[in-house]
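Now for one protein, fold included:
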Amino acid sequence: MIRTYRLLACAIFAAWPSFSALAADVAGMVKTSKGEVSIERDGQKLLAVVGTPVLVADRIRTGSGGAVGITLRDNTLLSAGPNSLIVIDKFAFDNKTQAGNMSVGIRKGTLSVATGKIAKRTPESVDFHTPTSVLGVRGTEFVIEVAGNDE
């Protein structure tokens, strides 16, 4: 019995670095999901249900009747409408200092944004980009629409 607990403890501690590595890449979490919503990660397509972590480099895709709400760790709110493709290109946030940076790509569809702590502290560290433009943020709410792109 003691040997079983020791093996279990060793397995938990051996896996611990992978948990902290994953935590460093977590940008946020799916808060709402309606219709067809998926996350493309490492060549896999995952269902984006409420509570699913959103990682740096994730591609969030909504179907024709889909919509998704994501809260990033700095309290930035992202809401994508139907037929959208959003990519979390870069996200880093230090909860203690409130310092960080983010870059989010909108490949197609619509994205509504309410900026969080990063944009309030260092707005120059935040950008949203489309296939044809880059939007610098100065701590606000806005909507971006990208039409006619199938990437």
In short: Confidence is low (pLDDT under 50) at residues 1-22. The chain is about 20% helix and 50% strand. The chain has one domain: 27-146. Helices lie at 2-25, 117-121.
